Amino acid sequence: MSEQINPYVSVDCVLLGFDGEQFNVLVVRQCSSGGGESTGSYKLPGSLVYMDENLDEAAHRVLKQLTGLTQVNMMQFRAFGGPDRLKNPEDGMWLERFHHLEHHLERIVTIAYMSLLRIDRKMLKLEGGYEAQWTPLAQLPKLAFDHSDIVHAAMSSIKDRATLNPTILFDLLPKKFTASQLRILMESVLDVKFDIKNFHKKLAQMRYVVPLDEKEDGVSHRAARYYKFRKPRKSM
Amino acid sequence: MSEQINPYVSVDCVLLGFDGEQFNVLVVRQCSSGGGESTGSYKLPGSLVYMDENLDEAAHRVLKQLTGLTQVNMMQFRAFGGPDRLKNPEDGMWLERFHHLEHHLERIVTIAYMSLLRIDRKMLKLEGGYEAQWTPLAQLPKLAFDHSDIVHAAMSSIKDRATLNPTILFDLLPKKFTASQLRILMESVLDVKFDIKNFHKKLAQMRYVVPLDEKEDGVSHRAARYYKFRKPRKSM
DNA sequence: GCAAAAGTGTTAGAAGTACACCCATGA
DNA sequence: TCATGGGTGTACTTCTAACACTTTTGC
After folding, report:
1. Which H or E element spans position B64?
2. pLDDT (tens digit, 9 = 90+) per residue, B5-42?
3. What is the model's pLDDT at position A126?
4. Side by side, which strands form the sheet with A225-229?
5. Nearest protein residue by Cα to C1' of nucleotide D16
6. Whole-angstrom distance between the N-terminal and C-terminal Cα of chain B?
7. Which of A21, B89, B180, B188 pairs with A3 at a CA distance of 20 to 30 A?
8. Do B79 and A79 lie within an 8 Å CB cutoff?
């Protein structure tokens, strides 16, 4: 890690996936940078910001290092910067060790990003000693720093964004998905229940959702039709 | 300015007012900290973040110094942090001079806040040498740093927020306001036109807007009824 | 009395809500 | 054949959109 870094500003990424029932977050372990023992607590993937990159670039770098993905919509949603973010001394020490900082960290402001991923994509284990893991929101352990707060803020932000523009949610679904996958996803994001019949009607009116002639296979009940998402040409 | 500051992180505040026709932004002049010549270009009010305060506190401090207001909803809406923010060398030098920094500033990340104010409130001229001024958006000069971008991002953010929760807009109106004041405000935020009759119908259904028995005075046409805003008890 | 903005009702179409039963499949 | 989730239609209500004339006031 030879590049010059800004020791006061980081990005942290809330990578969200949906497994058909609930949201999952990709968390990593706080390990020393040499790889080795995985005893640290879990945290969000993140990094200090390099001097020659902007915030979006830093967030994309983190995502790419962790998953290999590059063409992903990373949404900045909030900065967290209270002096109490490092109140657990282990967190500060870990940062200093991991980034080989010379001086003591008093304060770090983080810019939080959120990204919606298909959970089936393979995750790389990083040489940097990352150990990435999808964890259901409900079973999320206490994370390092204020990362637990950041995750909750991300969920709240995604609700607002999906209300304004539901099409962002399709990043979470497989390329072919069933009506009930979409319905359950929307229900859990927006925290509502849809009537099933009415949902089908609404689905038929969504220009950006097109029914396929293909059906589910190998399920022990009537097979569901698949749909796919088609990006609207203008004005999401 | 003896407090310890974080030389890498600032807050900038987009203070918006509505004069009945258009949005105005409160801009200040880049002056030296000793007061004196007002030759600098305009910028948004802002400050580096002190080591013992969180981001919200820093933003409220800036607002209070400039206007004396304290109980105001300051909404964080985005961080700006590209390395090119200081591409105009004057901006960086001004910051160094103003804050009496010892070392050269290479990079500064700013957390942008936005706040909606009644434009009639009196603004203080600060001993710090601020010269605050409401400026209509349409006549906004090129601002220092990337502050022009920040203003546009604020306007876009307010549209999203008002779509999700129109009640934030009442901070912009006088305590008593007419139907057309509200209509023109909403039209300019949401970038739509409302049919006047339909708007009155909609107004009558807004629980949080109550008609008064009072009317305009001294206008050379039929006097308009006043309304007032009543905070909803739960769930804005 | 005239200029200027305020205020008012109806109708037609679209969208949303509530509700109960049969269908296809694998085990 | 049964358990499981998939899929369908109708009636009612609510919301939205379009549209033109009369009222009040100061000058």
Report:
1. helix B55-67
2. 777 899 999 999 999 999 999 999 876 555 445 567 89
3. 52
4. A176-178, A225-229, A209-215
5. B198
6. 40
7. B89
8. yes
